[in-house]
Every structure is written in C-alpha cells, then in structure tokens.
C-alpha cells in the first residue's frame, strides 16, 4: 500500500474508533523536569570516565593530555618511545601556587579541576599556561611567570616569544615580554582609521590582527578604514540616563563599507618602518569566514620562511573572485599570481574555518584549494606563472583541512570527508598524500568521526575517534597511521546507569527525492512505541554550518535530549545548502537565503512520520538560535500548516539589517530593479508575518552586538500590523549568547513546547540552574 493511502486509512479509522495511544498528561511535574535536567551537559559530563583532550605537544614529540574521570581531571604526558604515560607536572604544587597568587580573589583552585590551557618546555622546566597567567614547574614546585606589563591590551606573541604586538589609541605597538618595554610602531592611526583593528561589525574585539614573520622581525597587518562605515547603536538598560554603545557596523548595500590598506611593519631596527603595499585598498573580506580572521588567525596572509616576501589573497566584495598576490616586504611591490572566479562564492575550504592554500616560494609553487570539480580539492601551481602543474587530490569527496606540509618529502597530511565508501559522509578522516601525485593513504581506518591533534612535525598524532552512540577511543599513531599506544577508552557505564540514551542517526531524501540527507533523532529514555509523540526540529540552516552539532560522541548535544525527556521526539537534519557535501549541494539556494533548508526540513518530517507511527506530525514544532531563529520564524510564516509552534531566538530576520559580509557572500550584492524592488525583496520574515497560524515566541537580547535586536523588532512590528497573537521575550542585558540568562530561556522554551505541543501544563516557574 502506498504511504498516502495507508495514512488515509489510518485517518478514517480514527474517526470511528477511539485512539489506542496513551493520552498526553495534562500536568507535567517537577519530577518530569528533574529527569530532563539530568540530560544536560553539566550533569552528564561528569558521568563519563576516560575522556581525553590534548593540551599540547612538547619538543621531544611527547604529548600532554587531559584525562577526565568522575568529573575530575589529571594531566598526563605520553612518551611515544615507551608508549607510557606519567603525570605531566606536579598538579598539587601548581594548585598551591595558583591559590597563593590569587589569595582573596575568589574560590580556591581545585587540584583536580586545574584550568590548564597550554604547556611548553623551557629546558628542564614545564611552563604551564592557565587562565590568568603562566607557571614554571619543576621538581622543586611551581612559581608564577612574572610579566612586565604596563597595559592591559591583549597581545599577539612573536614566533620567538620575545615580543607581542598590541593596539593602543588606534596605533600598533610592541612590548618586550621580559622587560615590559613598549615601542610604538605606527603613528598616524586615528579614530576609525586604525592599525590591526578587529571589527567585522558582528564581531569587534581589542585583539590585534597581525601576522609576524618567521624571524620575528616584521609584521603584516593593515590600516582599517571605517570612517564612512555605518554606525551601530545599542542602549543599556539601567537606572537614570541610558548609556549608548556604538561601533562601526556595515550593512549589505551600503555605498561605503570597511576597507583595509595592507602594510608591512619592519620592527627590526631602532626606528620602526611602515611599508605600504603598492595596491588599492582591499575589501574587508577573507576566503574563510565573514571576517578577515579565520579560526587560526589572519590565515589569508602567509610569509616566506626568510621573511622577504609574503603572499595574500584578495577577495572581492561579493566573494565571487579570489586573487593570490605576492608582495615584496622591503618595497611593498605587489604581483598578481592567480585568480579564481566562481558563479556563487569562493571559499578556501568546504566548511568555513581555515584556509587550504599554501605559499611555497622555496620551490616556486603554491597550493590552491578549489571546488571547480564540484568537490573541494588541492591543486599545485607554478608560482611564477600561476599555471596549474597538476591536481593533488581528486574524487567525489572533500579535503577539509591541510594538517601539515613537509617540504623535504613533499608530503601533505590532510583531513577529509566523504571518501570512505559506506561511512557517514560527514565523518572526518586523516590522510597523507604526496604533492607530486600518488595514492591518498588513509591513516584513520575506523568507521567513526576522528578528531586529530598532530605534533608539529607530524611524526605522531593523537586520534580521538567516536560516533554519537559509541564511546571515544584515544590513541597515539605515528605519521603513517600505525597505532603506537592507546591513551584511553572512555567508559559510559555510569552515564548509562543514570538513564542516558544515545541519539540515533537516520537518513531521508532531500527535496529532490534523490539526495540523501543525514539527521539525528533524540527520543525519551522512557520511550514507548505505543504512544504518539509531538516532534520538534532543532534548526540551523547554514550556509556555513548545519543543524547537527557534531558527529562525535557528546554526553549532551545542547538540550536536545533534555527536551526529548519531556515527551518529544527531537530531530536535527542538515538540509541542502549546508557544507561538507558537494559544492552544488551547498549552493542549492544561493541567492535565496529565505529558503533556510525548510523544503528539506518539511520533507524529512513527513518521511519520518510515515515511517514511524509514534511520530505525530500534526504536532510539529521548530526552534533555533541566530540563523536558526530566522529559519524558525520563516517556517512558521511560510509553512503555517506544518509547524504549530516555533521558538525563535535572536534571528537575523532581515539580512539587510545584518552585517554586510554575511548576506553579500551567500545572497549576492544588492541589486535594484526597474520596478523599485531588489534581489533582497521578499527575503525578510516581516513580509510573511501575516501568514502566522500557530504559536510563536520571539526572543532577543537587547545588547546583542552580533544580530541587532531591531531585526526581531521588525517582525514584531509586522505581526502587530497583521493583528497576530504572538509572544515576546526581551533580555535586557544579554548579547547574542545569553550568558546568565541561558538557563531561564531554556526553561521557558521547554514550557512553551509543553504547553503548545503536549497540551500540558509545566510545573510553575521550575528553577533551572547550572551546576555550581
């Protein structure tokens, strides 16, 4: 029987026979919420034993890692030569030194919860970085590293660790780490026209955007011109006269947006010298993010080893072309080497995070990343002419990140997805491949998601592999993939004894009826197949990431499982338009960001309901934050007969009200049409607010300096004009992340779905708080 016919028969039966499914409770209790709370990360995390995170590699190829058991941590050092681990430092001595240094400044540091962020060796001494400073530890104990510092500006350390660059009064300075002596490097910086300033509109920090040369003598940076850029204003909620916060924030279609003027600062002599690159101002753009800064810093700038030249990529305002250029660091002369132009948007990795091009002047070559075959691969080019020498990787899969390049052996270590037949195409694996051709060698054979942390020389790497339902295993492998030692095998016994159930993976067909989509499902731990459950979709539409938070094991993925415990099926699906598949998959709705993957979310919902009789698609809800908040409101307005309840947090409901780089990358530059409309007309949620039928809650922080609150207020205005009932929660002090308000918002979100999908009453004002 066809699905449609089967559903029709079921519907007819229900008209003449009482439902056999258990009835939804009219009142949820405190005990029900208590059970849900136990599924949150701060409750489940301490129940996992043997979780491993790498802290850092030492110069002898030993690795220091954190192992968590029973909510307590210890720091171990593994020697690859012996395969054995021992304490990395005297944790008791470090805790004592930290508590002495911070006496009277808060709760004492616990020896089994040390906030270690990094480690390195200085002779026989271990230098341990912790929150708020560093400590030198040897067999005599630990002592804080004295820092000679006259200001609080955050600095960027030089490769030799002797100096750090920082911003003060719109100019770039350097500080000698040992003495604290400061040197002003630039002198013509002025308000909104400063050096190395970090401001993408949605993100604005005091960090300096610089790239030191390998010899620590020069700095590549820019003078950022924001003088004509639009201004964002937020107003504090306080007693008395309100206080305004203002900064530069460019919007799509603005005539004047932020530009960067590239410079090299020679800080090697007694008098610093600024060399301006001989080219027009560049767009404030990158190949890796909607900022000039990637996950690893300003990666679109790379120095030659000798510090005499640097390469960089200039990206046009709409991200349709990327040009590799080489500059002489002494003269500022610039030479164009290679340009790639695409129909949609160019990116140097299939999921924006870091760049996959490499500057190799020593061999007169460069590596370029391209998706011109519809898949993300590496290509070797001649640096002098820009001409292609040969393709390094190929096939229907993606290189996601270059781990390391060994110039001597001409070998690359790379991360990739989608290459191993029969595996989840999102699972990350580690490979090595020769730059001059040859087979790609798989180094991580297990059918799982692999998190790789390699030594600087890639002689060894730590591989932590798992799936959403299998416990992590941490092993040390050599550069050829051979297992040297097992660090830990996580134990989920206590977690499972507490009632934890793993999420389930599933596949459905996309809107085209052919393409596989991958999702995750969260069911109550007391799941009963004889019941009917309302279904809630957690959504983040992309285009730079999807709804699924991770393919690796996590004791909790947000509050997906917690919400399920209250009597819901919760799903997350990565629809078309999200990354890590083919380029055409990600570009499925380029220029139509209002799509929001919603056609795929709807078809996934219908397929799951047809397959599983315990899913009640007539009681479907949806929620998301930021881009997911946008998608949630769009779902309620564009699919009002599908979704009955939507919880929309901090949504960018109109991309003309959001920063320029985001929309101009994925939707295109603003184009005015002869009829007075633009290519952005009808893309905003306010235009469709009149279609609302179900229950909608809008949430926004009034101090949101990423997505401004006016974005939600535009939807509020449209709903009021359409005479629609809706709910609104404004958080007076919250930014884009809700901070102290997060648990209150979470509890209110649970209450919302309990009332509007379960048809039940939640316990009144349940007190949901984080574990202290």
What does this structure look like?
The protein is an alpha+beta fold. The strands form eleven sheets. Strands 39-40-42-41-43-44-45-46 form an eight-stranded mixed sheet, with helices on both faces. Strands 13, 16, 17, 20, 21 and 22 form a six-stranded antiparallel sheet that branches. Strands 1-2-3-4 form a four-stranded antiparallel sheet, with no helix packed on it. The longest helix has 17 residues, at 742-758.
The beta-strand count equals 46
The low-confidence runs, each spanning 5 or more residues with pLDDT under 50, are 1-22
N→C terminal distance: 55 Å
Number of helices: 12
* Average pLDDT reading: 94
Which strand order spans the largest sheet, edge to edge or round the barrel?
Answer: 39-40-42-41-43-44-45-46
Task: Tell me the fraction of residues in β-strands, as a range.
Answer: 25-35%
Q: Whole-number radius of gyration?
A: 27 Å
**Helical residue percent band:** 10-25%
Class per helix and strand makeup: alpha+beta
Shape descriptor reads globular
Main sheet, how many strands, which sense, barrel?
Answer: 8 strands, mixed
